From TrEMBL:
Source superkingdom: Bacteria
Lineage, highest ranks first: Bacteria, Bacillati, Actinomycetota, Actinomycetes, Pseudonocardiales
Name recorded for this polypeptide: DUF427 domain-containing protein
Region (Disordered) residue spans: 1-25
InterPro entries (UniProt xref): DUF427 (IPR007361)
Organism (species): Pseudonocardia oceani
Domain DUF427 residue range list: 35-123
């Protein structure tokens, strides 16, 4: 499928088509709050934002921000840029566990040292994720973990027909 025509970015917006490849990681100090099963699972302003062409940003939070809610699982995958990822469940007492809802890089590629001991999550599984009080939408398709917020415009990889972008 040919590359889609990017949406025009308005004032204060970024087009994901201007993001680099390979991806770029940068600090972000907005407040991320993740909620599930009536609990605040994580609340932090210590974020790393990963930007990659055609994807909304993926946010990595310190593993420590999740307290006891993170449970490592056996699943692993490989990213050509960042290395081998291990997955985690989020388990809140009294709530349905979120299975393989997040991932982290125990030994990230040397190009991404800022991802060490940080976890990214799929937004769709949570009751709510906010970034500076604005509700986050999940990246379309369920395969990628980007967070869609009003400051990013697409189209975004992940939806129907976007696999070959």
């Amino acid at each position: 499928m040919p590359r889609p025509r990017p949406e025009p970015a308005g004032p204060g917006q970024e087009s994901v088509w201007d993001y680099p490849r390979p991806p770029h990681a940068e600090p972000d100090h907005r407040r991320a709050v993740l909620r599930h099963g009536g609990a605040v699972v994580a609340d932090t302003t210590d974020l790393v934002r990963v930007l990659e062409t055609s994807h909304p940003p993926t946010f990595y939070l310190p593993r420590t921000a999740f307290g006891e809610f993170l449970v490592p699982v056996e699943r692993t995958t490989f990213c050509e840029w960042k290395g081998v990822a291990r997955y985690v469940d989020v388990v809140v007492p009294g709530a349905e566990p979120l299975r393989e809802v997040g991932w982290w890089y125990p030994e990230p590629d040397r190009r991404y040292p800022s991802l060490l001991d940080r976890v990214a999550v799929y937004a769709a599984a949570f009751d709510e994720i906010t970034l500076d009080g604005v509700r986050v939408d999940p990246q379309p398709g369920g395969f990628y973990g980007g967070w869609v917020t009003p400051e990013v415009v697409g189209p975004f990889k992940g939806g129907p027909g976007s696999w070959g972008w």
